Every structure is written in structure tokens, then in C-alpha cells.
Amino acid sequence: MKHSCEVAIVGSGFAGSLLARVLAVLGYDVLLLERGTHPRFAIGESTTPLANLSLERLAVRYGLSDCYHLATHGRWMTHYPGVRRGLKRGFTYYRHHPGERFAENGLQSERLLVAASPEDALSDTHWLRADVDHHFVRNAVAAGVEYLDRTELTTADFDGGSARMLGRRDGVALEIEARFVIDASGPAGFLARQIGIPSMLDRTHTRSALVFGHFDDVRLMRDEAPSLPEGPYPDDWAAVHHLIDEGWMYSLRFDHGTTSAGFLLTPHGLAQLGDAAAGDPARLWHALLERYPTIGRLFAEAKPVMPIGFVPRVQHRLARATGVRWALMPHAYAFVDPLFSTGIAWGLRAVERLALAFEEAASRDRRPDAATLARYDASLSAEADQIDLVVAGAYEALTHFDLFAAQAMLYFATVSFAEVSQRLGGGQDVAWNGFLGVGDPVLDAVPRESLERLRRITRAAGEPGSVREREEFVDWIRGAIAPRNVAGLADPTRRNLYPIDLDLLVERHALLGLSREQLLEGLFALRGLSPEPAFDEPLGRVRVATA
């Protein structure tokens, strides 16, 4: 079997499939390769407003109406109810302590809620990846992408004027010649192995293992802690984070009743669990449930719908993201940790960037030039560093809830400012804006300084620090984010309950470089109430854009 194409994409997760489809719309001859088959299980399930903005921009620019409809929970339910998902109203955090039930202390509880949307219809979503990835593959094929599953690639040669890859499909020898290759296959993926891209894991700070699964019949936290004050949204319909001494647990509830859950455990935390951490993932899972009574009650009647899995280290990082005729998608290049749900948003941002690169190249060499590839490589490198610094700081801050809540404000201030800025304007180049504050003259350096300050407080040995040290850190975070704090974060009067506050946003119009009147004019866009765009003749519009 011999195939030739302009672009070969290895890996048919959401990012690879969506990029393949966009390139087909642009008129490229695209081959999409998959080692397994769809539908298939995958983790990395929680979207954010920035992810949904990328989906909307891709939808409008390339005529992908389904991407627009999948960008909010309400539109998704109206147009694609058969593609399973979960309602995500925000980010919920609880701090648990070994051997103790979660303490319901009213507004003094160790609890943090940050809303990401004002109502269910405009909400973010958790993606049931088996359904969502399969949806994107089917639509790529419908757009003209050639799709080969059950394909095992064994070699890649970039020495000539094109890439030559060999492998097998269903036992039959396969030869592929492509002008450009994109690796969307994931950690330690195809190109990393075949062309020997060096690891740069020693550049990163974060280390964590993962024990995970999907479960039915998980109880609501609201039922286990009924006296907690009402927050800006129902606590459980969110990305729920249970913070523990050994790391943290995510709990993502899908609308059909299944819950995706997993513990991320630090090396020290894993060692502290002793024999329970050895061998059987199910044994480790149940040891953690026994150690934290409230979490144990949440999962007391839960039924796993798949074997509990274990990954000894989730982090990876490569030295390069591009070459003369190849590029890596973010998840193939680097991954830090799911703590702040950065994976889908970062992946979709890369889809936008590479789509623009090929769009610009359509009338020239039909592959991105060296300068564009260097820009892409530099962007991913800086952003991988930034994600790592923010997450490593959060792990350091687990020693005391006050420290963690303050560190989280850094993340939420950065993304809320970016979201509002993008909703109110920006052209196609917004995709090249630095992710998580990279390149921002105010925020770029804050994550590194925050991590250094936290390590001084904790003595890099898990100490909680003194009351004064913690108060000084909270004050420092409040001042550091102030020039970008359009959401009223780090406000002690909120008692760690942060709604969407458009009145406050209007008051802080100057932080966005806008007048009050200009901001008021943009409120429809901020609330997601702009008229639905037309999706007729997308290819014609794209051709005009590249002329």
C-alpha cells in the first residue's frame, strides 16, 4: 500500500482530526493516521472559556458549524445531544485532611469556587473523549481527509525533499510519502522515537503520577457537605478538585451519570502511601479513599466502568517542537499536569496557529516557512515553561489552603483577562498571543517569582509557613495581578466564592484599555449573546483570505 499526500497527521485525537479537517477545507491533500480505532477511551476532558473561544474562531474562519455549536453546553445540547458531555460551570476546590471528614465551617471552610460562566446555557463542558474524538474524525473524513486506522508506523526518513514513512496496516506493508508531517500522537509519540528528539524533562519542576478511571454512581459533594453556603453555581457541576496531602483528585461529572476521576500524586506522596502504592492500581485507589473519609463516602457505591489505570509519571517534555518538514502538537511535545485544565485549550490554540501557517503557505510553497515554524516552536517552549511554573507553584502551595487559594488567583486572573480581551476584539493573530500570560509585560514573570516565594515559605520541604508569611504571600499575589484583575479576584470579602461579575468588569474598563462606553457596547459578546454566524461557502471565504 502506497500513499502520497501533502500533509500526513499522525494521531486522530481531537487536535489531529480537527487540524486535518481544517487543512482539507484549505484545499490540502491530507492523510490522517491512527494506530487504534474509534471510538476509544482518552483522558484530558475538561474545557475552559479559552478553549471554547478557539473553537468559535475556527468555526467562523473555516466554516465549521459543529465547532461553534460544541463551544457552549446549551448549543451542544440543542445540536449534538448524542455526543456525550458534562456541564462545567467553573472550578471547585476542597481541602481534605487524612483521617478527617471535610470540615463544614460555613464561609470559613477550606473551599474555593471560581465561576467560568454566568449560566448553564453558556457553560463550558467536559468532553467524553470517546464520543468527541470520534465526532471530529467523522467530520474530517466528510471534509475529504483520507483516514487510515489500525496503522502502525515503524520508520520515518526526512533526508530527501519529502518525508517517507513506513509501517503496516492490518498486516499489509504501508509506505507513505508526505511533504509535511504533524505528530498529534501524544507523549513519547511517533516522531520523538523515530528521529530521536531529545527529552528536556529535567527543565520542568512538576512531577506527578496518576491513578484514574471512569465510574458510575458517584455521590454529590453537596450531599456529603449539605450545610456549605451556596456558591455562584452548584458545586458539583464543575471541574471538582479535592486537594490532599499527597497531591489532588479531579472529579468530572458527565451528564449521563458517569464520572471521570483520578488522583495526581507527588513522588513524596506516593512514597508516603508505602505498600499501597505498589503493584495494583485498584489497591492504591481504595487506600486513598480510606485515607480521606469524605472522598471515600463519595465513591462508596461507585462502580468502575473500566479497569482502574495507573501512569507512574504524567509529565514529558521534548527539546524541539518543529523541524524542516515536521511539527508536533502540544501534547506530543510537552505535558505538565491537568490541575488547571490547560490541555484542550492549549491544543486548540495550536490547531489555530498551524491552520494559519498553512493558510498563509497555500499560495506559496504549501508548507509553513522556517520563520513561522520557529515562531511556533518558541511559543510552545515558553508556554510549556509557564504552565509548569503555575502548576508547580500550586503543588508547593498545597501545604496550606490559604497559599493554594492565592496561587490559584494567578491562574484565574491570567485566563480571565485573556478571555475578556479576546471576546472584545482581536483578529486572526490572537491565536499567536502567548498562552497563560506568556509575553504579557505584567504577568509573564509572575509565575516564576511566585514559585520562588512559595519555596521560601515552605522551605521546599512541605512546611506551611507562618501566619505572617502566608499573609504576605496573599498580599503579594493581590498586588501582582492587580493590573490584569478584571474579575475581582483575591478579594477577601468574597470568601473564596467568585461569580461572573459584569458590573465589576465595567468598573474596571480601564484595565482593558477601553472606555466605559466601549465596554458596555461589548457586553453582548462578553455574555456570549452575539448573533450566530453564517457558515455558507467556507472554502470561498478562505480562498479570499489567502489571495
In terms of topology, how is this protein built?
Elements: E1 2-10, H1 14-25, E2 30-33, H2 49-62, H3 65-69, H4 73-79, E3 85-88, E4 90-95, E5 111-115, E6 124-127, H5 129-142, E7 146-148, E8 151-157, E9 163-169, E10 172-183, H6 190-194, E11 209-216, H7 221-224, E12 239-244, E13 247-253, E14 259-265, H8 267-272, H9 281-291, H10 293-298, E15 303-304, E16 309-311, E17 316-317, E18 322-323, E19 326-328, H11 330-333, E20 334-335, H12 343-361, H13 370-396, H14 401-424, H15 446-458, H16 467-481, E21 497-498, H17 502-507, H18 516-521, H19 523-526, H20 538-546
Parallel strand pairs: 1-2, 1-10, 2-7, 4-12, 5-21, 10-19
Antiparallel strand pairs: 3-6, 4-5, 8-9, 9-10, 11-14, 11-15, 11-16, 12-13, 13-14, 17-20, 18-19
Short description:
The protein has a domain at about 95-120 and about 205-310: 2-Layer Sandwich (D-Amino Acid Oxidase, Chain A, domain 2).
Using brief descriptors, characterize the structure shown.
nine-stranded mixed β-sheet; alpha/beta; 20 helices; disordered C terminus; 547 residues; eight-stranded mixed β-sheet; D-Amino Acid Oxidase, Chain A, domain 2
Question: Could you characterize what this model shows?
Answer:
The chain has a domain at 95-118 and 207-311: D-Amino Acid Oxidase, Chain A, domain 2 (2-Layer Sandwich), CATH 3.30.9. The protein is built from 20 helices and 21 strands. The model is unreliable at 539-547 (pLDDT under 50). The protein is α/β, with parallel strands linked by helices. The two termini are 36 Å apart. Strands 4, 5, 11, 12, 13, 14, 15, 16 and 21 form a nine-stranded mixed β-sheet that branches. α2 packs parallel to α12 (343-361), α13 (370-396) runs antiparallel to α14 and α13 (370-396) packs parallel to α15 (446-458).
